[in-house]
Specification:
The complex is a heterodimer of chains A (202) and B (1056). In chain A, 43% of the residues lie in helices and 9% in strands. Chain A is mostly helical and 202 residues long. Classes of the chains: A mainly alpha (202), B mainly alpha (1056). Chain A: One of its GO terms (biological process) is protein maturation.
């Protein structure tokens, strides 16, 4: 589709520096006893498994946890979109800083109806260069990913971050226009590109 | 009819007879019954015939006769005459073969060879219009002349060169080309080719790149790779080709096909390694200019790797014979633009192209000592300057990573402290920057905010490399780094995922291999000092310390020190009146256990010491503690005993035989003096504490060899002992003690009971489970004993295995729900891996036992369930029978390898689906086990097998309903725990995951996915699972939905 590489040498963030969710379990348990076989040697002794029924009891612990609800938050949205690959490079949008945690927000869609479960996710995209013609494709990719991965009560709003693109208004109009988005997704070549971008999503 | 006439008649259809005729004539010639002249004369009328086929046959006749003659028979003159004859007739069939026969003879000489070569060149101007086999014969003849009479050809010089090239130009057959390439290679290497370099080069390069693809069932077995290899040898054969080969190969890099580029790069690599260094030097910069692009904008990984390899090999070639590094070296000329480019790219080290620049640096600097020196001189000072001016930690970090790349190259060249090769006699150019490195990296590791984890990790990695680099750091400098690491581990609060601490431990472990002394002098005292005297419950930091100690103590000397220090800590604890929590002594024991299990104890020189200190004296303490004679009750704790038992087991297993005999005598007395000892078996008044010592006894027993003679209570038979143990195992007692009795029983029956005494075990079984079991009520303890006893027998495949299994199954039909369910869960005991009754401990585990259990039980369970299903809900069968059978099945499934399950899939799949339908309150674990089995089946075999059984729809529906979140409001509905939901989603994900890529695309094409009918249903249902309250479930749902959207293709569009 695009033969010329538009930005051949973008800046890349280190994978270890990207925002991640710290599993609460991680900090209390393996934090103390690492991974590897030492922990297994210990756990083997700590939870001496006496009878097969032992494992049957553990399910009760599960349902205790069950009561705690984990809401969909910004980090979760970030995790969904940051692993999408850039169409030009085999590098993730997160590492290229095209998407970033502070540029994601979740708001009630109907603030005047407090009980409404409807939510709007907005994601602002920062293209690597201001004249990147692939911005629309990236926006579409993010949109497709979120629409595939979020429950029906979520509305998705993807836009170019202000001041980061020369034709931001144009692109935003295109991304917000349902008809045009739908038409774009009918295009087999375009869908091929987007499918390739989404392949790396874990 | 003359021999010739007969020959002419049969030669077409009976080669064997023709050969015999010729042999007969040859014998006649040999016996002087006829002469060679007569034979030649007899050809007279035929060899001038109009018909070339007839002429050919006649010449073949002569060839066949000559071939049949003994090698020394022909005189020089005769050879000469025949040679001229064949040369005249060279175009006739058989003549080439005749010449080939002649040139093999001892009396064939150089002049004759020249005559043949000339004849070939003159007569075969049109060779390429002849048949493949004829051409092959000619090449074969030339090839043979080349090996036997090369000087003749060589002396003909340009004439033979041009002649051969002309002859072979236009050849297309792969078999012939193999010969052509090898003939021409000789010319290229040995002839003076100055006048015809380009001609010769073009004659082979015309074939580049080779696109040959062998036909299916090719009988000659020539692959494209064979041709590529030979062609490549030709191209790289002589430096004189360089003006032609290198530009042409570089041109090929403009190709759009990665395969062509690969061939070109491979050929280039071969050229660099075979051309002389001066030639390589001439083209080195041209090559760099072209390859730069391939690396910085890599299309394919393998192209960039090959290009890097070429750059490195150029540097290696240019380093040949270099002793003194100077600016005037060809190597320096070559490296100047390379390092310049790297410096430019590394100015912005976070950008994408910085990484390839690092790789270039890595490859080129690791080529030789000289190239390393030049690279370091050119790159390190600017890097250090940029580092000082860098405006952010992220940039500094990328610069540290670049330096680490250079350190890696240094390690490759100079080796580590443990490297055995001789010391390099070159100074390490990095030494000049040693202090700067120490400052920068030390500052980056210790002098920044603690939260900059990834930056500090980069610094740590750099220092670790410098510490292991041979002859670089002084011991005090490595010691400083070790102190940093200690500080990180002991004083810093954990941050995030705590990667830094993990790296620090790994680094200490690495250093312990190179500088064990430093670890013992610095790290050990620091760590041990933080260990408390006892755990008063306020903090459990000692766990971290012990863990670190355990991980860095793999090296021999350190290991011994560790064990000694920890044992003395433990002994102090045992003497205390107020020892605090038992978690601490247990953790100490776990640490020793962990380290010992990492080492080969049977080769340890201190094994006997550990035996005395741990097995003998600690067991004695255990016995004393059990009789209430200890200062505290540490050794009365079941978990402490369990750990100690494992430790003893490990040591006993490694002991020499005579020591093991000593151990055997003390299995029950635990080394206590006779008057104090109160062994558990046959004792009438054993207290709970005393019974608990069976934990230790069991582990020790497990470590002994099965033919151990000195076991107490085993003569003449162990009948009494077994009955005593069984009696105790069926009485109620603490769970840990109970388990020890069960394992003890299983060990004795499986490992120590002689085959001749198996009757005792059967008798035991019958006592525990009378044949009218369905009537009696069994206590859970008895049921467990029955299963452990059965486990011992089934694993050794005792003769009554089948009966045994059937009796066990009958327990499930007990009208008592408790009995039935306890027994159902017992089935997972049968084949489950056990730490005591294990192959490591020499248990008698027959390979086929798993298969036997499975194939015996599956039909019975399946039959029973069908029976229940048919009877329907109004039958008198109790409700719990079906769940009990499904539970038993899931217990067995969880303990056998999936390979055994596959052949039975049609039987088992309906049962698994029914398991997913279970709604009883304790069905969670059964359903979890079922999902795990299903996941393995689907992952290994794809959706195909499910489709063959016709269960796609029912499986998908059940998985979807298991994935659903149902609040636990109504008591009657079984809750799907988050784990179940995740596992169900995982199965859905695996279903849609495209079948493994080795399935040929052709097979898939045109066939609709069996999942297509349910796709809409899945996509719709999963959309609601995306709103699950648990994050893990949502994640699994996203993956599953993505896989279905991506992997399950809709009906193919017509417009494609």
């Amino acid at each position: 589709m695009v033969s010329e590489i538009q930005n051949s040498n973008p800046t890349i963030l280190n994978a270890a520096d990207l925002p991640t969710r710290l599993q609460p379990t991680l900090s209390c348990k393996p934090g103390v006893f690492g991974d590897g076989s030492f922990a297994s040697t210990l756990s083997l002794v700590n939870t001496i498994e006496l009878f097969p029924e032992g494992s049957y009891l553990s399910t009760e612990l599960d349902s205790d946890d069950d009561l705690m609800e984990e809401l969909i938050d910004r980090q979760e949205i970030y995790d969904l979109v940051s692993t999408i690959s850039d169409p030009e490079h085999p590098i993730s949008l997160g590492a290229l800083a095209v998407v970033s945690l502070p540029d994601i927000c979740i708001t009630p869609t109907l603030p005047y109806v407090p009980d409404s479960p409807l939510r709007t996710v907005s994601v602002l995209i920062t293209p690597t260069i201001t004249h990147c013609s692939l911005a629309t494709v990236i926006g579409l990719g993010v949109r497709v990913r979120l629409e595939q991965s979020l429950p029906p009560r979520f509305r998705v709003d993807v836009r170019i971050k202000e001041g980061t693109h020369s034709t931001a208004d144009e692109v935003n109009k295109q991304l917000a226009d349902k008809e045009r988005v739908a038409a774009a997704l009918e295009n087999a070549t375009l869908m091929g590109v987007i499918a390739k971008m989404l392949e790396t999503c874990q | 009819m003359s021999a010739l006439q007969t020959f002419l008649l049969v030669v077409d259809h009976d080669k064997q007879e023709a050969k015999q005729i010729a042999e007969q004539i040859a014998q006649d010639v040999e016996a002087k019954k006829t002469t060679l002249i007569e034979v030649v004369q007899s050809l007279g009328e035929y060899i001038n015939d109009e018909d070339p086929i007839l002429r050919g046959k006649a010449v073949s006749y002569l060839t066949a006769v000559i071939k049949a003659l003994p090698p020394k028979f022909l005189s020089r003159q005769q050879i000469q005459v025949l040679n001229s004859f064949f040369c005249d007739r060279i175009e006739d069939g058989g003549a080439v073969a005749g010449l080939d026969t002649l040139q093999k003879l001892d009396r064939f000489n150089k002049e004759l060879a020249e005559e043949v070569v000339q004849a070939i060149f003159e007569h075969f101007q049109d060779l390429q219009s002849r048949s493949q086999s004829q051409r092959f014969q000619v090449y074969q003849l030339l090839n043979d002349l080349m090996s036997a009479h090369r000087s003749a050809l060589y002396d003909m010089g340009d004439y033979s060169l041009v002649g051969m090239v002309d002859l072979m130009t236009g050849e297309k057959d792969p078999r012939n080309l193999m010969l052509v390439f090898s003939i021409l290679k000789v010319v290229m290497v040995e002839w003076d080719i100055t006048n015809h370099t380009e001609l010769l080069f073009d004659s082979v390069y015309n074939y580049f790149p080779i696109t040959f693809r062998p036909p299916p069932n090719d009988p000659y077995g020539i692959t494209a790779q064979d041709l590529k290899d030979r062609l490549q040898e030709c191209i790289s054969s002589t430096s004189q080709f360089a003006p032609h080969s290198i530009p042409s190969l570089l041109d090929k890099l403009d190709s759009t096909s990665p395969n062509v580029k690969r061939d070109a790069l491979n050929a280039l690599l071969a050229c660099i390694n075979s051309y002389d260094p001066d030639t390589v030097s001439t083209y080195s910069i041209t090559i760099w200019e072209s390859l730069k692009f391939e690396i910085l904008n890599a299309q394919e990984e393998f192209l960039s790797e090959l290009s890097l390899q070429i750059l490195q090999d150029i540097a290696k070639r240019l380093s040949e014979g270099v002793t003194q590094v100077s600016d005037q070296l060809p190597l320096a000329h070559y490296m100047r633009p390379v390092t310049k480019e790297c410096n430019e790219q590394l100015r912005e080290p976070q950008q994408k192209q910085a990484r390839p620049a690092q790789q270039i640096l890595r490859f080129i600097s690791a080529a030789s000592f000289a190239s390393f020196t030049l690279a370091v001189q050119a790159v390190v000072p600017p890097l250090l300057t940029i580092y000082q001016e860098a405006d952010g930690i992220a940039k500094q970090r990328a610069l540290l990573d670049t330096l680490v790349v250079l350190f890696d190259a240094a390690l490759e060249l100079f080796g580590e402290w443990t490297t055995r090769t001789s010391e390099p006699n070159v100074d390490n150019p990095l030494l000049e920057f040693k202090d700067q490195f120490s400052d920068i990296f030390g500052q980056a590791l210790m002098g920044v905010v603690k939260e900059e984890v990834s930056f500090r990790i980069s610094a740590l990695k750099g220092l670790l490399r410098l510490s292991t680099l041979r002859y670089f750091f002084q011991d005090n400098e490595v010691g400083l780094f070790v102190q940093y690491l200690d500080e990180i581990l002991l004083q810093e609060q954990p941050i995030g995922r705590d990667d830094l601490k993990k790296e620090a431990i790994a680094a200490l472990t690495e250093i312990s291999k190179h500088k064990p002394r430093l670890i013992m002098d610095i790290t050990f005292p620091a760590f041990v000092a933080t260990l408390p005297d006892s755990d008063d419950g306020t903090n459990s930091n000692y766990l971290t310390t012990l863990e670190s100690l355990a991980q860095i103590s793999v090296e021999k000397d350190i290991f011994e020190t560790l064990v000694r220090r920890l044992l003395s800590k433990l002994n102090i604890l045992l003497q205390k009146e107020q020892p605090g929590s038992v978690a601490y002594p247990r953790a100490i024991l776990v640490t020793i256990l962990y380290v010992m299990s990492q080492r080969k104890m049977d080769q340890d020189p201190h094994l006997e010491l550990y035996y005395d200190k741990i097995v003998v004296s600690m067991c004695r303490d255990v016995a004393a503690s059990a009789s209430g004679k200890a200062k505290n009750n540490i050794l009365n704790d079941a978990t402490v005993l369990d750990t100690l038992g494992r430790l003893c087991n490990l040591i006993v297993r490694s002991l020499p035989r005579n020591k093991q005999d000593e151990v055997a005598e003390n299995v029950y007395t635990l080394y206590s003096a006779t008057e104090d000892s109160s062994p558990v078996p046959f004792s009438h008044s054993a207290s709970d504490d005393q019974l608990r010592t069976m934990i230790i006894s069991t582990y020790i027993l497990a470590g002994l060899p099965s033919d151990c003679a000195n076991l107490p209570y085993t003569h003449p038979t162990m009948s009494a002992l077994l009955f005593d143990i069984v009696k105790r195992s069926t009485t109620e007692c603490a769970p840990a003690t109970h388990l020890a009795f069960l394992r003890h029983l299983a060990l004795l029956v499986n490992k120590f009971l002689p085959k001749s005494d198996l009757g005792i075990a059967t008798e035991l079984f019958d006592t525990l489970l009378p044949s009218n079991a369905e009537e009696t009520t069994l206590r859970p303890e008895s049921i467990r004993s029955i299963f452990w006893l059965s486990k011992a027998l089934v694993l050794r495949l005792a003769p009554k295995t089948t009966d045994l299994l059937t009796s066990l199954l009958s327990l499930l039909s007990s009208p008592e729900e408790v009995t039935s369910m306890t027994a159902a869960r017992g089935f997972s005991i049968l084949l489950r891996e056990d730490d005591v009754l294990s192959a490591t401990n020499g248990a008698n585990i027959r390979l086929l036992s798993k298969q036997r259990v499975f194939t015996t039980l599956l039909p019975l369970i399946s039959g029973k369930i069908r029976e229940v299903n048919v009877a329907g809900s109004d039958s008198p069968t109790p409700q719990h029978i079906k769940p009990a059978h499904l539970t038993a099945l899931s217990g067995i499934l969880s303990t056998i390898p999936p390979a055994l399950v596959m052949p039975e899939l049609p039987t088992i799949l309906p049962l698994l689906l029914q398991s997913l339908d279970l709604q009883t309150s304790d069905s969670q674990s059964v359903r979890a086990a079922t999902l795990e089995t299903l996941a393995v089946i689907i992952r290994d075999n794809g959706v195909g097998v499910i489709e063959e059984c016709g269960h796609v729809q029912s499986l998908v529906t059940r998985l979807l309903s298991t994935a659903e979140y149902k609040p636990a409001s109504e008591k009657s509905v079984a809750v799907n725990s988050p784990r179940l939901r995740v596992n169900a989603l995982k199965c859905l994900f695996l279903l849609a995951q495209a079948p493994s890529s080795d399935a040929p695309a052709v097979a898939k094409a045109g066939k609709l996915s069996p999942l297509l009918p349910v796709k809409a249903q899945v996509i719709r249902s999963l959309r609601f699972v995306l709103d699950d309250p648990k994050r893990d479930v949502r994640k699994a749902a996203v993956d599953a939905r993505g896989a279905w959207l991506r992997g399950v293709d809709d009906a193919p569009d017509d417009d494609e």
